[in-house]
């Protein structure tokens, strides 16, 4: 997601939890080159998240520049690419792997920001629920209605076009534990599975009440976990 201003919760979350995301991505962390490689990734992603200008350059960090610069870093370190050989998509040196690092780190940090905002009591009052929907093409097909049902999710209304065989819409309160249960990374925001293409859309209070998701005077208590920062 492109933003005009830095997202403060995203910046703080990445500062605290970037190493955890690197472990998810299996970025090397050996004593010889791994720590330096992670450092080079971190400062570039910090530049992007804070929307600062690159020192002595003036540009804002973007994906193409990130890939070029990280390849230069790996060339200097050595051992990440064979001269004259096209890297395999799974190689860290490949544009696919570097693009995955960029996307995952940005999405996790920004995902926390939007989740944090959604936990505000006024936001919970206005939009107390979310619907799981397909927002992008999936790299690998997944039967999300079955996943939803297996984790205790309920269906409402008629099926969506993206899942016409489902019993209905996959909707739950923002504070429902199901958002944690269906997420392989243990956080209550997308991506739920890498490259799943799944995301959420808000469900307004009027619709949530009509569907029986909550009662008129029911209050919600935000779910908490390791991912939440005390701010």
Task: Write a structural description.
- This protein has 231 residues and is of the alpha+beta class.
- The protein has two domains: 8-111, no CATH class; 121-211, no CATH class.
- It has helices at residues 8-24, 34-50, 63-77, 95-118, 121-126, 144-150, 178-181, 205-211; strands spanning 129-134, 155-156, 169-173, 198-203.
- It has a four-stranded antiparallel beta sheet with strand order 2-3-1-4.
- Helix 1 (8-24) crosses helix 4 and helix 3 (63-77) packs across helix 4.
- The chain is globular, with a radius of gyration of 20 Å.
- 24% of the residues are buried.
What is the topology?
Blueprint lengths: L7 H17 L9 H17 L12 H15 L17 H24 L2 H6 L2 E6 L9 H7 L4 E2 L12 E5 L4 H4 L16 E6 L1 H7 L20
Antiparallel strand pairs: 1-3, 1-4, 2-3
Instruction: Calculate the mean pLDDT score and round it.
Output: 90
Order of helices and strands: HHHHHEHEEHEH
Number of strands: 4
- The largest sheet has its strands arranged as 2-3-1-4
How many domains make up the 3D coordinates? Answer: 2
Please indicate the percent range of residues in DSSP E strands (runs of 2 or more).
5-15%
Unreliable stretches (pLDDT < 50, length at least 5) are none
> Helix count?
8
What class, by secondary structure content?
A: alpha+beta
Shape: globular
Work out the radius of gyration.
20 Å
Q: Quote the distance from N terminus to C terminus.
A: 24 Å
Percent in helix: 40-55%
